[in-house]
Amino acid sequence: MTFSLKITTAEQVAAAARAALLSDLADTRWQIQNGGITLPNGFHARTDRTTREDLTEALFALQLGIKSEPFSWKAPDGWIKLTRADLEQITAAVAAHVQSCFDAEEAVEAQIAALSDAELAAFDVRAAFDAAMAAPVAES
Length: 140
Prior knowledge:
Blueprint (H helix, E strand, L loop, with lengths): L9 H24 L3 E2 L5 E2 L3 H16 L6 E5 L2 E5 L1 H31 L10 H10 L6
Antiparallel strand pairs: 1-2, 3-4
Helix pairs in contact: 1-3, 2-3, 3-4
């Protein structure tokens, strides 16, 4: 009979915990990034990749004169008529939301990197992400 002994070091445990936190962070960012936003006027905008592409395409078509305004758009609550100004506002808000999600992920990733091995188990990725999203944007 032979036995195999696998020894896991504290460093390996910490590396696995850090990797799990980073994976959870990426998933959290993706969920929030694609979860939609509500504009100040109450309009709910989808923020998934397909909708972002559709918004960009519609704006480009307006700029080229291929599409005229107002035009029909299917929103989560039904059909609406949008103008170029409406579309620019929605597209800008969606783009800002997506960028904020990436900025928050970057900030939380730095927090995770700075954690001691002992702090890893207690780190709340969602709370840290929400705090990063709510933090004022630092100017470059």
